[in-house]
Amino acid sequence: MAKTTTNRWGLTVLMCGLGILVNLPIILMMLNSLQPTQAILAREHFIPPDPNLDNYRKLLLTTPYLTYLKNSLITAAGSTVFSLTCAVFAGYALSRFRNRLMDIYATGLFAVQMFPIILALIPLFLLFRPLGLIDHPLSVIIVYAVLNLPFVTWMARSYFDTIPRELEEAALIDGCSHFGAFFKVVLPLSGPGLAAVSIFAFLLAYNEFFVANVFLRSTQAMTLPVGIQMFLQQFSTDWGGLTSAATLTMIPTLILFLFVQKYITHGAIAGGVKG
Q1: What does the CA dihedral 208, 209, 212, 218 come to, rounded to 10 degrees?
Q2: What is residue 4's three-state secondary structure?
Q3: CA-based nearest residue to 28, from 47, 12, 3, 51
Q4: Low-confidence spans in the chain with pLDDT less than 70
Q5: How far is residue 69 from each of residues 17, 36, 246, 253, measured CA to CA in Å?
Q6: Is 218 exposed, middle or buried (0-12, 13-18, 19+ CB in 10 A)?
Q7: pTM score above 0.85
Q8: Would you say 198 and 78 are in contact if contact means Cβ atoms under 8 Å apart?
């Protein structure tokens, strides 16, 4: 018993050490956000001798950070709803209706996933400009939804494969239509899997920089990845503002993971096993 307890404590200490080592860049970023840029550049102390929240106060009061945050949440949520709605029906069709046409469609999803988005940015820019979508959140919502759709569809399909067909057949015998069986039986059972899928789609859109940097040009439309870039100037960098902005940007995703961690684990395990 004593040996088992010692082994557990040793394993706990080892895992804590590995956790600190892996997250060391994040820890350094958070510590640096509590001191001015001059102290960061001096690199005299690992832990700030006089920590303060001046960088955060300046960030929230003198920069449009909250506007960037609002834009990121809107674009990420909008693209997640759009892509998840399409992926639910597409993933269900790929899971339940197996034929040559569906196989071609599934293969096409892989081809779209491998297509580099940089090749489509100029045509999309020329398409969106006459429609008035440049510098508008709808432009990046559409692009993000299309980019996430292949991945989200395959994740949804994998999860639908784990739901027994017998449940739908029983609903059909009881008088439900195919749509009724889908909405009343399959969709409620797929809640944890779809929650995990939606989280991945949200994070992919929340952290994306390149597309947003092309289509969102004004301060009022920029998302967080693009807005934070403003702290990097040509001849100097506001490291205090940059680290504080990066720390605050990390908080929404951290809170999201804390609340939905069980859905991510359940959805990943269930979606990876067929039958």
Answers
A1: 130
A2: helix
A3: 47
A4: 1-3, 233-236, 261-275
A5: 33, 23, 11, 12
A6: exposed
A7: no
A8: no
